[in-house]
Amino acid sequence: MSLWTPPAPPFRSPRPRRNCSTPAIFAALNSLLTALNNNDQAGITQAATSLKSADTYLNQQVAFYGEAENRVAAASDLAQKFQTQQQSQLSNLRDADIPAVALQLSQAQLDQQAALSAESKIMQTPNLFSYLG
To answer: Which residues span the domain enclosing 12?
Structure first.
């Protein structure tokens, strides 16, 4: 009976459990200690095999959780970049240079008045249609 169950890894469905678990690792260490105390060569060999299996399992777990940690860090970095970009855009909208914007508005109004004045002069000038009609 297992006393400890590792949490499900992020971003993936839980992987099937291997033959090795935390209690099995400690059991292998205990059996190695017992075999060494009893000078049991077969027990030492069997415990060494169990420990090698545990080492492989732990290395797989370290790689898996390291990959998950890298994904979380990359997602966090991306979120930070988006937040910085949005803050910059918001700052550009909120912190407009009032004198410069007023000058641009004034220039646009002058341009509009000039265009309307030119249009009214063009409309007053006789054209081909006024001679035909």
So the answer is: 1-95
